[in-house]
Amino acid sequence: MFKAAVLTVSDRSFRGERPDAGGPLVVEILKNAGYAVTETAIVTDEKGRIEAALREPVDLIVTTGGTGFAPRDVTPEATLAVCDRLTPGIPEAMRYASMQVTNRAMLSRAAAGIRKGTLIVNLPGSPKAARENLEAVLPALAHGLEMLSGR
User: For the segment 20-32, what is each residue's pLDDT rounded down to a tens digit?
Assistant: First the structure.
């Protein structure tokens, strides 16, 4: 069983102005897929805070939020800053699957990469889009994590 952390990136949810709908949904999907979600957090849309949260020593970190065009959407930049290697096929597959639903999927700036022994995957902040994107790649993630961990 792989250990996972879920990170919600949202100024409004961090301040308590809006409930976090995406994070709990991602937790539910991961648990149903057999992952042990050991950590959840909500952080502001600040690159340094996101980077610090992305250093959690787990097998998989899934973020939700901060992947759009808004000036404070910096989750991909924080992800790229902490990763040693990129995994471009993951966001490519998510955008492809999401394009079947809406042409706005091409506006996603989601990134994915490897930091030491951790795979980090960015999802959109919308719960609907987060579900669509995660379900598009979830079947392949376990194999990638097995390779990464040497299992």
Answer: 999 999 999 999 9
